[in-house]
Design goal:
alpha/beta, five-stranded parallel sheet, 30 helices, 30 strands
Length: about 950
């Protein structure tokens, strides 16, 4: 639509309006079941087949979408609505910043459940829980109910396939994706792993990881354009991690120490593979095939091996002696390289080998169809670079005009300055921001004095040494196809002694005649997945197959071709995972301080000045390389995206607990990332909810030396002391974690303390973090940390009640609902929890009553807890939800055994008599707790082990001076 602003719908139904827009030239809806997205997903989702409704608010609301949408987008069939719903819920949670805890907790739980489904951790029960959450959000009047409810209603089948872990329409869910840097690397180098090795100072392990995917780490560290850095999630924050020079730093150290670590070589297979050309694709394929046990021979027509890495890249970027040392590392494995050995016919060449690989490269310059291109002062860029790298006496200038906008054009311009040129002008069709050359390369050329003229295309070259250009209005048409449009009235004339064309490269395919290998527009035709040509046993890769590209892309094609050749020789199918990112090792993240990792700027590459590098014949290396300290600091900046996958479950869990300690930021990579490592130090309570939901273990708790540490990918974000009980009881096991984390019983030590006047025999060893001012004798139920961790939080109680209604409540959580009473609310249509009041300052002592009538201890209101009225005893109100009598007396009654003769409880208003030689037992109290039972002391002062062991706190007896009701305190 060309009109901006508000648009009045001409049709009363969305589907009719969309059909009219499509028929009127605005675009045709593709697919059998397109999806209508309202308000960019925040307003809900609706299939086009269900869009035959009125545009009135009530009609739209009846379908489950927002009543008054502001935008409408039509997406073709195959869109993952589950992923879009997850994104919409996350945005609703962001917009709810500052709302009350119950609202943010509900939004966080819905986002967490959807995220677990997209990660392949969901169950069918998740859908029932989401249905209940959609109803709850709608009842509370939250806008997040629109995307969640509409997607569950209209795209149920897609949700069920996700919950059963079957399929995703876009193929982005249900699987763990690689780190963005590794996925962006054409060679799929395991960058996070080698960065961790380098941060530990292990250079050999670093090179060993890199060479599993790229046998030329040093050269790649010099010449790679580093697409991995463009994909780094830290790039939008404080600068991407400086990955490229890290490879060359580790390689230089290994070569200085005696060479690269040799890989394991499989037993000899007896198969021979011949290769034509020794470029990066051939060297990579030869290295991989040799490790698989095959015999490999390379035939190179030039004097030295390396192809375009040697003859197409200037020495100030890739020194020839350093590159030769890396080639020698491949020779050391048994790969034979024959130089000055051109192959005249592939048909004859393949007779002596079981398989053939064609890595011909693009070492032939292409001239433009421009008037005067045949003049003697017009040169080809590749020919000029080859002549300069071969050591020939190639002189140009003093005025040189270079045509092209890529990295090759930049290399030609800088090489011309070193071959006698005094002034170099560089013209390109693209504007400067659109030039395909790397921004760093362009800045380097400008720093050395190259004059840029972007947006001009060559028109003609005159014999008098004049190059005429016309202004280029556009380079590509609306479809992205190369179709430059010029303005012939705007001309630019430049004087030139030499004109060098760096606008295209081609391949010499004379050796393919009679072999049956096809070519298209000067490049070999091969299957992009297997690199096999139409001729069985003949494979091709590198620039000669896919066109002029970077060296790392040629390395990728060589790796894929090697896997296909090995499968061909073994008669097996090609592995479907060939060319996909693979984790090469499991390395523990580096230990980095939080204040160092949060604001850590990118390292600056030390470079020689233009005065040191410029000048005729000066090919000294421009980059000096990173130091060991700089490389170590840069490795610590890595966020370890292979461990932390950016799912956001930890942040949702933290918000659901009401803590709000974790904050992750959006990144251009489409995933969340931790940048703020200082916020948890102020807000984290050490509950461990984030560790329970983390699917990869990126967050974990470390309890040692009396301190609990919360660690995020190697960074300690919170430290808090642990309290140790001094009671004399046995050690109690930690419970298993359940399926719900919103109550703290799943994430903390479950302790129940009773009072005892006995002297402590030994410490129980149980440790818990400090939640307020009271010691560890507090059982963590659905607690609210703001209240000291003693009483259930209303929002979390409501969450547990919702789980019970949906059937998702774990069995271990059912007793927790016993201390929570619910009342009906006709306006809400569900139950509202009534949270018990906090206990008074003073705890009441036990009332005098027979032990058979006592089943617990006084609660905060002074009420007794008993099993049933007996022998005329007065009625005692019993708090709702208390479990069955589990005391020793109760168990003996259920088994039909007689009661013990000796009772230590007070009876008939009298204290039990003291045993001979033993002091009388003291009356004890305990901080008021619902459901906490009191146990008497055993003879001799040792606590009696009734049932399961309890953690005990020593209290002052009531008959001591200064004690009384509520006077018992821990000592």
């Amino acid at each position: 639509m060309n009109q901006r602003g508000l648009v009045e719908l001409a049709r009363p139904q969305p589907r009719a309006q969309i059909d009219e827009w499509g028929g009127g030239g605005g675009g045709e809806v593709q697919g059998g079941a397109p999806c209508l997205v309202f308000d960019d997903g925040l307003g809900g989702f609706l299939p086009l087949s269900a869009a035959d409704v009125s545009c009135e608010p009530l009609s739209l609301a009846a379908t489950g979408i927002v009543p008054v949408p502001s935008t409408l987008m039509v997406q073709a069939e195959g869109v993952c609505v589950v992923k879009a719903t997850r994104r919409a819920l996350y945005r609703h949670w962001q917009l709810a910043d500052g709302e009350e805890a119950s609202v943010r907790g509900a939004l966080a739980r819905a986002a967490r459940l959807v995220a677990e489904i997209t990660l392949g951790r969901g169950e069918v029960s998740h859908l029932a829980a989401l249905d209940a959450m959609a109803m709850e959000l709608a009842t509370q009047g939250l806008a997040a109910a629109w995307p969640l409810g509409s997607s569950l209603r209209h795209f149920r089948e897609q949700w069920e396939r996700h919950a059963r872990r079957e399929s995703c329409p876009e193929g982005v869910c249900l699987e763990r994706r690689a780190a963005p840097c590794q996925a962006a690397c054409p060679a799929n180098i395991d960058i996070p792993t080698f960065m961790a090795h380098l941060g530990n100072g292990d250079h050999r392990a670093t090179v060993e990881v890199i060479r599993q995917d790229n046998p030329l780490p040093q050269t790649c560290g010099y010449v790679c354009p580093a697409p991995c850095e463009s994909a780094c999630v830290r790039g939008s924050h404080d600068g991407a991690v400086f990955i490229r020079p890290m490879k060359s730093r580790a390689a230089e150290q290994c070569l200085a120490e005696g060479g690269y670590p040799k890989p394991a070589i499989a037993p000899d297979t007896g198969r021979r593979i011949g290769m034509v050309g020794s470029g990066p694709s051939s060297l990579t394929a030869a290295y991989t095939l040799r490790t698989l046990g095959h015999d490999v021979e390379i035939h190179e027509a030039q004097e030295h091996a390396g192809g375009m890495l040697r003859y197409g890249i200037p020495a100030y970027r890739n020194p020839p002696d350093a590159f030769e040392r890396e080639v020698d590392q491949i020779r050391a494995l048994g790969v034979r390289i024959f130089t000055n050995s051109p192959v005249a016919s592939v048909e004859e060449f393949r007779k002596g080998y079981d398989a053939v690989f064609l890595g011909l490269g693009t070492q032939k310059a292409r001239l433009l169809p421009v008037e005067g291109a045949h003049l003697p002062f017009v040169l080809g860029g590749i020919d000029f670079l080859r002549a300069a790298r071969s050591g020939g006496s190639v002189r140009v200038g003093p005025r040189v005009v270079v045509i092209g906008g890529g990295n090759v054009a930049i290399d030609v311009a800088l090489t011309a300055l070193r071959q006698g040129a005094r002034r170099v002008d560089l013209t390109s069709l693209e504007k400067r921001r659109e030039m395909p050359a790397s921004p760093g390369e362009i800045e380097l050329a400008v720093a050395e004095g190259v004059q840029l003229h972007p947006g001009w295309g060559p028109l003609r070259f005159e014999e008098e040494g004049l190059a005429v250009f016309q202004f280029c209005e556009r380079v590509k048409d609306e479809t992205g196809r190369f179709d430059p449009k010029f303005d012939g009235n705007r001309l630019l004339s430049l004087e030139a002694d030499h004109v060098i064309l760096a606008t295209g490269q081609g391949t010499d395919l004379a050796c393919l005649e009679g072999s049956g290998v096809e070519n298209n527009r000067g490049f070999i035709v091969a299957d992009p997945k297997t690199k096999m040509t139409k001729v069985p046993g003949v494979f091709a890769g590198g620039d000669g197959q896919h066109g002029p590209r970077t060296a790392v892309e040629a390395i990728r094609s060589g790796k894929i071709a090697a896997a296909s050749i090995d499968a061909f020789l073994r008669g097996a199918p090609v592995d479907a995972g060939t060319g996909m990112p693979v984790r090469r090792a499991e390395v523990t993240p580096l230990s980095v301080l939080a204040d160092v990792r949060s604001p850590c700027d990118r390292a600056m590459m030390p470079e020689r000045t233009a005065e040191e590098t410029a000048g005729e014949g000066n090919y000294v290396k421009i980059e000096e390389g990173l130091t060991d300290a700089m490389a170590h600091d840069e490795a610590r900046r890595c966020l370890r995206c292979d461990v932390c996958i950016g799912c956001g479950l930890c942040m949702a869990a933290c918000s659901e607990m009401g803590v709000e300690a974790l904050r992750m930021a959006d990144t251009p990579a489409g995933r969340l990332a931790h940048f703020d490592y200082l916020r948890p130090a102020e807000r984290c309570i050490g509950c461990g909810a984030c560790t329970q939901v983390c699917p990869t273990g990126a967050i974990h708790l470390e309890d040692r030396d009396g301190v609990r540490r919360t660690v995020i990918t190697g960074t300690v974000v919170k430290e808090e002391p642990l309290l140790a009980c001094a009671g004399a009881v046995r050690r109690r096991r930690r419970p298993r974690t359940g399926t719900s984390f919103a109550s703290a019983f799943r994430t903390t030590w479950r302790l129940r303390s009773i009072a005892s006047s006995a002297r402590p025999a030994r410490a129980c060893g149980l440790i818990v973090p400090r939640w307020g001012e009271r010691p560890c004798g507090v059982r963590k139920r659905a607690v609210d940390s703001r209240r000291g961790g003693h009483w259930p939080d209303p929002s979390l109680c409501r969450h547990l009640h919702g789980q019970r209604q949906s059937g998702d409540l774990p069995p271990r959580a059912r007793p927790l609902l016993g201390a929570i009473r619910f009342r009906a609310d006709p306006r809400r249509g569900d139950a509202e929890p009534v949270v018990p009041r906090p206990p008074p300052e003073r705890a009441l002592p036990l009332r005098r009553e027979r032990a058979s009538d006592v089943r617990g201890q006084a609660d905060g209101r002074g009420e007794r807890v008993r099993r049933r009225p007996r022998n005329g005893s007065p009625h005692v109100p019993q708090p709702a939800g208390l479990g069955r009598d589990r005391s020793l007396l109760g168990r003996r009654r259920r088994r039909g055994e007689e009661r013990p003769r000796r009772q230590l409880h007070e009876r008939d208003g009298r204290r039990p008599a003291a045993l001979p030689g033993r002091p009388p037992p003291a009356r004890v109290v305990h901080p008021a707790r619902v459901g906490v039972r009191s146990r008497p002391s055993a003879p001799g002062g040792a606590p009696r082990a009734y049932g399961r062991p309890r953690c005990r706190l020593a209290l002052r007896p009531l008959d001591r001076p200064g004690s009384g009701p509520g006077g018992g305190r821990p000592v």
